[in-house]
């Protein structure tokens, strides 16, 4: 299982549901009485669930430090547990859900089947389609260089980080019924005035931090020379970003598609 820092989770999930929550309608959150958010991390999605549902929301994660942040930020109940062996009794909740979890685990269908054991009604997942991410930027090279890195990473990582558009098939194979699908587009925009997050991201690009952090995955796909070329171009792109930020001319928009899929647990009368 891939692990993430609290800073990474906050950065990537910040504002994901700020513009619209229409894609969550199939979860019937207004009718839920007890929801288990698996892989809750620092609690961003759990906060959305809590805001939309009158029911109790429980955050479950294997990382106790992330759960401590989730509890501090949300006040919700937390449970330390593994998604592959949920420490919850059968039929204890009427919705088990997760956000950006299955794409980071090696056997998503097995995880979905585990979810069906503890839910008496619905199972839902929100997963990114990282292969369909689009970027536009005032730095002319940024979109192409990020595409190269993203494609190499997807090819080299050992989980399905582009699961999104195949999520419905995974639900079907896991034995869930009445499957519904929605797509949500998360827009992340960087423009003046720049906040600390934008400044940190620019500095990380100039230092090649993201490539260094994903060296193992990238090198599974790229030769040493190809990796060095990508890193050189990436850092030059980062320096161009910093120059435009100094001139207050830098603008970037990233659009990340998220697939929302909901299925009903077999043999439930609800």
Molecular structure report:
The two termini are 33 Å apart. Helix 2 links the parallel strand 1 and strand 2 (56-61). 40% of the residues lie in helices and 23% in strands. The chain contains ten helices and eight strands. Strands 1, 2, 3, 4, 5, 6, 7 and 8 form an eight-stranded mixed sheet that branches. The model is unreliable at 1-10 (pLDDT under 50). With 270 residues, the protein is an alpha/beta fold.
* Run of helices and strands: HEHEHEEHEEHHEHHHHE
Number of strands: 8
| Oligomeric state as shown | single chain
The averaged pLDDT comes out at 92
- What percent of residues adopt helix (DSSP H or I)? 40-55%
Key phrases:
10 helices, alpha/beta, 270 residues, 40% helix, 8-stranded mixed beta sheet, globular
Topology of this protein?
Elements: H1 6-13, E1 34-38, H2 44-52, E2 56-61, H3 64-74, E3 77-80, E4 93-99, H4 108-118, E5 119-128, E6 134-137, H5 142-156, H6 167-173, E7 177-190, H7 196-207, H8 209-213, H9 215-221, H10 224-246, E8 252-264
Parallel strand pairs: 1-2, 1-4, 2-3, 4-5
Antiparallel strand pairs: 5-8, 6-8, 7-8
In short:
This protein is an alpha/beta fold and 270 residues long.
